[in-house]
Write a structure and sequence with these properties.
Jelly Rolls, signal, single chain, 5-stranded antiparallel sheet, 142 residues
Length: 142
C-alpha cells in the first residue's frame, strides 16, 4: 500500500511540473466565499485510490503574504510539496517548521495543524490529500 501511495504521489507531482501531462483543471474546492480568503486551494485532480472509500485529491495551494491558514484537520493524510515563497508548518505539540521551495511535509489524518506565510510573496505548494470520500477536504479545528 505504501509503495502505491508513493508511486501515486510521484506521478502527480510530475504531472504538476509538466502541465501537458496533467488532466484538465477540476473545479476549486470549496466554492470561494464572497470575501477574499488568504488561502486559495484549487483542485487539479480527484480520483479513487486502491483503499475502499478513499480518494486522492491533488490541489495547488497558495497562502497570501503575511497570512495564516487557521488550525484545521483533514479526513485523511496530507502530503505536500513546497514550490515557492516562505512558510511555516504549525503542528499542534511540535515546534514550528520553516519551509522553502523543494521541501515536503506529511500531516497524518486528523492531526491539527496550521500554516503561516511570514514572507512578502505568496507561498505556493502542491497538496496531495488521500481522504475519505464525501468528506470536506479541510475542517476547522476547535
Amino acid at each position: 500500500m505504501r509503495q502505491h501511495t508513493i508511486a501515486f504521489v510521484t506521478c502527480m507531482l510530475a504531472a504538476m511540473a509538466n502541465p501537458a501531462l496533467a488532466q484538465g483543471p477540476a473545479p476549486a474546492d470549496p466554492a470561494p466565499s464572497p470575501t477574499a480568503s488568504p488561502i486559495k486551494r484549487t483542485v487539479i485532480a480527484r480520483a479513487d485510490v486502491s483503499v475502499p472509500n478513499r480518494e486522492a485529491v491533488v490541489a495547488q495551494v497558495e497562502i497570501a503574504a503575511g497570512a495564516t491558514a487557521a488550525r484545521h484537520t483533514h479526513p485523511g493524510d496530507e502530503i505536500s510539496y513546497f514550490l515557492g515563497g516562505e512558510g511555516e508548518l504549525l503542528v499542534d505539540g511540535q515546534p514550528a517548521r520553516k519551509l522553502k521551495a523543494g521541501e515536503a511535509f506529511i500531516v497524518p489524518a486528523g492531526v491539527v495543524h496550521a500554516a503561516r506565510n511570514p514572507g512578502k510573496e505568496p507561498a505556493r505548494l502542491v497538496g496531495v490529500y488521500v481522504v475519505e470520500k464525501g468528506q470536506p477536504l479541510a475542517t476547522p479545528a476547535k
